[in-house]
Amino acid sequence: MTLVAEEVRIEVPVSGAPKRGVVSRLVSRLGNGFVQLVLALVALFWLVPVFGLLIASLRDESANTASGWWTVFTKPSELTLDNYADLVANQAVWQSFLNTFYIAVPATVLVVVMAALASYALSWIEFPGRETLTVVVVGLLVMPIQVALIPVAKLFGAFGLFGTITGVVLFHVAFGLPFAIFLLRNFFTGIPRDLIEAARMDGATEWVIFKRVVLPVAKPAIASLTIFQFLWVWNDMLVALVFADQDSAPITVALRAQLRQFGTNIDLLATGAFLSMVVPLAVFLVFQKYFVQGVLAGSTK
Amino acid sequence: MKLRQSVDAAPGRSPRQAIPFLLPALVVLAALVLYPLVFSLIRSFFDAGGDEFVGLRNYVDTFTDPRTLTAFRNNVIWVVVAPAAVTGIGLVLAVLTERIRWATAFRLVLFMPMAISLFASGIIFRLVYEEAPEQGVVNAALVGVHDLFSPSSQYPGARPRDGYTRTEEGYVATAPSRAGDTVMVPLTGFSPQEVPARALPASQPATGNGELRGLVWLDVSVGGNAGKVDPIERGLPGIGLEAVRDGKVVARTTTGDDGRFTFPDLASDEVVVRLPASNFALPFRGLTWLGPSLITPVIISSWIWIMTGFAITFIAAGLSAIPRDALEAARVDGATEWQVFRRVTIPLLSPVLLVVFVTLVINVLKIFELVFVIAPGSVQSEANVLALQMWQVSFGTGGDQGAGSALAVILFLLVAPAMLFNIRRFRRERS
User: Chain A: nearest CA to B420, how far in angstroms?
Assistant: First the structure.
């Protein structure tokens, strides 16, 4: 019985295989075609809105009020760079574009440096309360910035930092630190203990170990953090809305006044929005691997 | 420090060495995150100016203020709908991308919105949903589809001069007519420039024996006589007419290029001529997406556009960690793809899905810029959410930092469970 049964079981696939194979292959081929189609449509849904904004930024005000951006396919002659020329010539907007750099660059450098130092201590120096401190940092990951807006506004007011780029930078540093420490600490603790111990045996100071052993190994994590933090600050609106004044406002805040008359300001808003997107998109396309890693790790923010 | 380090037999064991490493970060965190948290908590028990202790009044006011209650309601809608939608869509797309060769390109495209600012995304979607079909692509598409199935009328807004009453069905002649009569229908309220090119000059139809005849023309009063057919006036082609007897339509006809029409086979009884409303219907202009009733769904849809790429990437990373053997074993046992997905993939993936979901909930609770940018000023109160309300109360029009602090504390309490979730997850991963 058993023998027969086994023989049958072996027989069935051999004789049945080609038939089932053809059918299932056909089904999966058709199914795959369908999947490809659906995903292509989804991708289109993601691209069309951005494409629309780009075209709108390349048409002048009258063209944008008279007809939609999609008419560009029949009237490509309407495309012009005038909006960008106007925007760059606009002193206030251009200044705000520069301000965005003045805010994002120091806020990124400070966070990376401070977080790297703190993460090293949390990973490789033993001190009382290390565990608690780490847990506090993890808890602060999801802290809503609203909690700090009013008190810090008062604090900055007292120190003359309200309405300055320094104030905006400091606030970003504070709320960038928990995630930055979390990310780097996770990476630093993964460094083999032998590496650190060997350096200690050689009499290296903590500072030297940090600089010569840990930092070189942690380059990928630092790259992810740098890109994530830079884009986070670059894309901010709320912090600057509260802490920046007219002269220190980044581009998101500077453009906000134009929102009231959206329909007639499409040319200006689309151009401004696209200008503000150029830097993040470039960073994203060039460093996508690091950026994606950073976002996946920092999503809790 | 240096001296100590050089003599210390076991560097790294000395707590003191941690101080210079920790100090900068700790000072900033303490001054700008922890101290403010305590300050906000205390501040929320004081009045707008901060001078008078008011106990829980700010909280009571917050929960009775209709604007804040709208913000609460919207936050609940957001939390219930948006994270689940993004997790679900992300899961389906992540599984589907495993079957295509251009998965990396696909994920790159969907991830792109994560790189740009919420401000820019807001502008993008403000444009997408703009009401005028000449600007907003969604309404343009809706109008296109609508006109495909029910073409818009040729003469929107036009109406007959005297002698007709307006009803649900259209314009009805006040005087009855019968076979052999001539019915003159002068229309106004329509621009001569919009008249179709095929229109011919209007001329009085001859009285026909046994037929009810008539003329529909554009009766311009400037440079012509009202109610009379002037040489410059043209007939209006393509207008539908109905002959109604006892409330029932007994005959239908359409005007020719010169505006003339004929009801050929009418019995001798009286009928009433009616011009159906469909001749003059105003064109369909799409939906008011940015109006009070649709604004929250619209903003949620733009958030889905932004966050789906994140969900896909996160879930795809989880999928690639699922042992192929488990899936293959199920397939060998004869499970269909759906069963494999439902019984094997989802259970194995549930920890990842939970993390994605919690992350999205935190993100949703803090939603601010999207509402700020997409909702026009007039409907911002309908689209309001807590984070936006907090800003408005404290820094916008309100200027009440007591109430603002109360809202900040409420926001903190709403996020607190996620905080505990993170800490527990962190502790578990360490042990």
Answer: 7
